[in-house]
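During the no-cost extension, the postdoctoral fellow (Dr. R.K.) reprocessed legacy sequence entries with the updated structure-token encoder. One reprocessed record is reproduced below for audit purposes.
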Amino acid sequence: MMQAAPSPRSIDIAAISAIIAPIADAHGGELAHIEMVRGPSGMTLRIDIEKRGAAAQKWSTEEAAIDLEVCAEIAREASPALDVADIIPFKYHFEVGTPGVERELRHREDYERFVGKRVRIKLYANAADTEKSIDGVLSKVNENDVVVMIGSREKSITLGDIRVGRLVFEFGPSPKPGKTPKKSN
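Re-encoded structure tokens follow.
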């Protein structure tokens, strides 16, 4: 009899969080996100950590960034703790990292935190809006939508229509309007 392939939905995120959160806290971090994803080499449990207080203080990605060595320490402690708890009923890879500078925006609170930052938003295919990809500066967040400035045009996007939203990392200062950046030799 063939065994069914494991499903990312078959894990208890709350139970994993209860194990990982105190370990992250002991290292000055907090959980930003937990997900189980299926990849070419099997299932991977991904844990994103940022500095303790980052979400509550609405820190930028730069302020919230946690050191790679801290991620490694958390992984070294969390891996055996997860093994002992035995709450994941299949083999998996384990990754601990940071959300990164082009982090995904998953909840309204994420959008609120990054007002004023450049974002790229992709909409579901069945969204009423004809533009399926929006790139601009997040200007405000309301109860059920976000507003993005695309040049001088305001665009309101219903939160429920967003398939994925991400911050967009910009290299260096933006050139002044009408000026092209100088090329380095």
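The chain has five helices and nine strands. The longest strand covers residues 29-39. The remaining legacy entries will be reprocessed before the final report is submitted.
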